[in-house]
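User: Teach me something about this protein's shape.
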Amino acid sequence: MQKGDPRLIRGWTMYDWANSVYSLTITSAVFPIFYAAITIVEGNDLVLERYGLPAQSLYSYALSAGFLLVAIISPILSGIADHTGQKKKFLKAFCYLGSISCAGLFFFGLENLWIGLALVMLACIGFSGSLIFYDAFLPEIAEREDHDRISARGYTMGYLGSVLLLIINLMMVMKPQWFGIPDKDGLPARITFITVGIWWAGFAQFAFRVLPDNPYGRKPTGNVVANGYRELRKVWKELQSTRRLNSFLMAFFVLNMGIQTVMYLAVTYAKVEVQEMDANGVAGPISDASLIISILLIQLVAAVGAFLFVKLSKLFGNVRALMIGCSVWILLCVGAYMVHWASEFYLLACGVGLVMGGSQALSRSTYSKFLPDTIDHASYFAFYDVSFYMSTVLGTFAYGLVFQLTGDLRNTVVIIGSFFVVGLVLLFMVPNEEVELKSS
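Assistant: First, the predicted structure itself:
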């Protein structure tokens, strides 16, 4: 394996192309709308009536549970992956778990709500778990100075691929007769969940074909689990001695609480709080079509934002570029609290897309660039991804809890905005890039 090999990098970015359809169709677009249509009928929350919990809170709790399980199991699995040199096998396992679970959502309904929410949780685990091992390949396939650019390229591939499938899925939902699909019982929407599973597992094969099985030729000995734990413990001690990496992880933890909560739950917020005029000039809830337009705007603008932040990082450095992004997030939260109409929500969506693409791509590459010289990439990225998922757990849980306690979704925006304020303060505390990393 040679760093910078174009074929290797193209294959790596194809996994972003493959798995990002989960983020868009399942977590942001079709499934949240489908879930709302199943659980809330004529303003009545059927889940609340049956089980005593709001449907939206229960959905956010299912996501939180998935992220929590990943955060618990991923560190030891990453230690085993580094000890055995089998990152790709773990990547495949989580990929197939997620894709099969997405396809299983075809059977989701109110009568089997708990099975459906379990599949939501498993799909979340598959997606989140696979990213640990996928991200860990970045420092192995590219030189340090290229991490920003290649990370942004991966995210851009993800945004574009997910938009392409979403457009196909929307055609299936809006014009099912074109595909010979009966328009009843939500069948067109259910079939889109199957297409996500097929797309994810299918395009992932391009990455699986070129990514190395064991790039450092490691030969596991003894008890694999025990040695995996020792590998993880060794990396933890090394991590403790890297001041810049620790400071960045703390800032990233809080910043990501806000970013992921916006990503996962923006549609449910807009569905309740944003209005638009219908053809008769009567104000009503924002339509599903308008929600989809806003989601497409976010994805397309995010592809631009990813490369814009690469430029900012070259001008100001990675941490300062993230500070700029964090400041924009704060302004967007203020705007989200005041937004009431679909036209305003479109503008907000463009702003979210621009800063979302840049923040995600640059966070991953910044962590990768801050790593000390090591071959234990999966173990190091396990701590990054544990921060990612634990912060997502807290963010989505806080969203659901605030709504459950107050009954007003606008109060959740105040909580999200506070995450970005604290994240900005913590970014100021990250040492300059020129500070030398120390390893024990």
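Now, about its shape. Confidence is low (pLDDT under 50) at residues 436-440. Residues 201 and 440 are 40 Å apart (CA to CA). If you'd like, I can walk through any region in more detail.
User: That's plenty for now, thanks!
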